[in-house]
Amino acid sequence: xxxxxxxxFDLHPERIIADTxxxxxxxxxxxxxxxxxxxxxVIDKPARTDGTWSRVDFEWDAENDxxxxxxxxxxxxxxxxxxxxxxxxxxxxxxxxxxxxxxCQACPSKAKC
Length: 113
Ligand code: SF4
Fold this sequence. Notes:
The protein is of the alpha+beta class. Helix content is 19%, strand content 13%.
């Protein structure tokens, strides 16, 4: 729709207002990449209904840039120190925090995690 409006009327919005249905990370990132300020509620799905843990069960540790899982393990973006400063969020506004595979394989709570 934005491309059609630009092609037809040569209009490029500075901001967009929309409902939560448009509040996914990829859509918000797409708008920001085009210098359009999204005024859109972010889709937030913190609670799980399938018996597995929700995001709120993982504690954020800002000082160490990590989450702590219910089993007390540290979930980090990187488990090594990299000299490459380009490593980090994937450019789509997503940063993944994980524990080592070996640790999770041996975890007694893996089925709930
Ligand atoms: S599987 Fe266990 S150790 Fe791994 S993140 Fe989940 S709770 Fe923590």
